[in-house]
Amino acid sequence: MSKQERWSKLLELLAADGRLDVEEAAVAVAVSPATIRRDLDELAEQKLLVRTRGGAMAHGVSYELPLRYKSSRRTSEKQRIAKAVVELLAEGDVVGLNGGTTTTEVARALALRAGNGTGDRYETPAGPQYTVVTNALNIAGELAVRPQFKIVVTGGVARPQTYELVGPLTEGVLNQVVLDIAVLGVDGVDPRLGVMTRHEDEAGISRLFAERARKVVLATDSTKVGQRAFARICGLDRVDVLVTDAGLAPDMAARFTEAGIEVVTV
Question: Is 34 in contact with 45 (CB distance < 8 Å)?
């Protein structure tokens, strides 16, 4: 197990329990307690946890893994979801992408598709192959160097956990654009409550993405389906397609289909 994988596992354990014990963490990760102590010291230096005698604890009462550590979770499912989402897009589309690990994979899959990965065709007769509007700094950074894309980055205040820009400046830009498709990564999808995320500021921006789009696609792994989160983005009446993995329960899929949503499982 690499250091990055080990750190990711330690942060997942911390997110689940709120605290870590050195001896228990050493057993869980299958390394020596001395290695765990060094890992915890380094993670504390990066302000990812608070070091305590004999272990560590999370910052505050609510802990969220930074995006770079979330990205190693359910990677294969997210990559399959991303490829399926890209199949829904047409050249020339204006695509909105909020932040998150699954939408980051969508951006990467779209980059591979653009120009068939050869870089020999950068634009359609009407302009770039795709216009991507995003409030995610990491997505903008990955696509900005690719001439097949026109990248529109919203302004706003950056959230370090997700690299997303939020706030009135973000809203100001989104209110001035029109999207063909909004692809949203979310933290919860409930047949009754709708689409949700953990933070109210991110929910407001994702809601605006949905309002500005002709078509709304939810890209999320099946563990988020049936789950609730603090802040509501929109109702299911605003969603056109749900793209998720094959772990989606058949009865849950049926409920979304009955709500008029196309369900794509991969």
Answer: no
